[in-house]
């Protein structure tokens, strides 16, 4: 059986084998769970879909037949519990293998899946339930996750159904055990490819996280991501280092990979240990690898020669810019060129070093032919080569597969992002004479730290609750390992002193108030914050001052 992706696209290549045009061929009622997973299960039932292991040494290898049947059982059980087409269901399942059949079950039902990180606190969960009108939540077995959900649910007005896996927890229904009594055959839902399919919350600078909505055709846009950037192979084994709560999981742990016939490697861990990750790669013979720059920096720092990269044929990275010297050192030691790529939660791969495109160290690569990209000025006009402007997706005359539908219930955010049919990424870059894009920075204040996208407002909202804090501003300061560190510039209330003890107290306070990865690793106490005439905090002034130090 040839990889299914060939049924859903038309590809054009130049004489050097570089992809020059890519057109999606999407059936009106396309549904990834039925048309890809079930289709492979029918033709090649024993083909491996998922290879899973965890830090305790447990492992599970799941075939497409098993994935199809488990998702069918889960879908039938969830339907009996009242989950139907269009319902929003949040998944907090970490890197557990249950995530894969559960999200497929939601696809089969026609529901909208909302993957979320396990690091959310009760306040984060309340906001997401209310913003996205969430009907149900499926959790991992961790007591802390379940307790945070149980603290959040009584604070919302709607009734939220609660499920979890692996261990019974009071207040939750055990999905994985209860579904075993159901039929593995699930009736096909009547959906259109433009129906809402997936929703991710992504950070913003002027408010709380925005809810990004993708349609049912979204998986097909990731053919370019998987086949032409990550270079996955039929019957290969691909590992993308990402928690299922982040958009990167959709980029590298399910859709494009299965469409192209490769199995997905999942290493279930919480704390990154380079030696452990590399042991997994060696043991299972991972053939293609994608990780955020932070991972590559750690691998280089801890000494590449001690690791075995022999099974890996291709390596890729995205999330933030990777130092050219890291790419060079990695190639010198392993022989592998790290292929950089760029995109957003709102999109699939926009720019990258696609297959057979020569690498220019430090650049993001060239635009994906799936999109009509340009670098534009503030008036929306393309800028000449070498000039900095905003990366934008222009109208192409055909459906923009892979571009999100909207920000859910947020007309203000929609108006900022879409103007005159143009999608504004909020990221700036320049294009050289050879067509390579070079990242410059963001037009807003998003902080990219260790692969996470952190909105200042979220951290400020948590920090300002502490009785010692009168006002604060969150910015990013450059860091060699993490890209950027979260910094808090704090004005204290009278009666408080900026001591080392207070620094630790504020850091712990933020960790307990919101997802721990957002806490400020750097805290500076000041008498006042720089502001505009209208009273808005001038974060750019703080960043500039930090750069001058």
List the helices and strands and how they pair.
Layout lengths: L8 E5 L5 E6 L7 H12 L4 E7 L4 E5 H17 L7 E5 L5 H12 L2 E4 L6 H11 L1 E6 L3 H10 L8 E4 L8 E2 H4 L17 E7 L7 E6 L2 H12 L7 E4 L6 H6 L2 H5 L3 E6 L5 H11 L3 E3 L2 H9 L12 E4 L6 H11 L3 E6 L5 E4 L13 E2 L4 E5 L12 E6 L11 E2 L3 H7 E2 L2 E10 L5 E6 L4 E3 L2 E3 L1 H8 L5 E11 L3 E10 L7 H14 L8 E4 L13 H10 L1
Parallel strand pairs: 3-13, 5-6, 5-7, 7-8, 8-9, 12-13, 12-14, 14-15, 15-16, 28-29
Antiparallel strand pairs: 1-2, 3-4, 10-11, 11-21, 16-17, 17-18, 19-20, 20-23, 22-23, 23-24, 25-26, 27-28
Helix pairs in contact: 1-2, 2-3, 4-5
What is the count of β-strands?
29
Q: Kindly state the percentage of residues in helix.
A: 25-40%
User: Distance between the terminal alpha carbons, to the nearest Å?
Assistant: 60 Å
Q: Order of strands across the widest beta sheet?
A: 4-3-13-12-14-15-16-17-18
CATH class of one domain: Alpha Beta
Instruction: Please report which band the strand proportion falls in: under 5%, 5-15%, 15-25%, 25-35%, 35-45% or over 45%.
Output: 25-35%
Number of discrete helical segments: 16
Task: Give the class from helix and strand content and strand pairing.
Answer: alpha/beta
Average predicted confidence as pLDDT = 93
Model regions low in confidence, pLDDT < 50 over at least 5 residues: none
State the shape: globular
CATH architecture of one domain: 2-Layer Sandwich
| Biggest beta sheet attributes | 9 strands, mixed
- As for the CATH topology of one domain, it is GMP Synthetase, Chain A, domain 3
Provide the gyration radius in Å: 23 Å
CATH superfamily of one domain: ANL, C-terminal domain
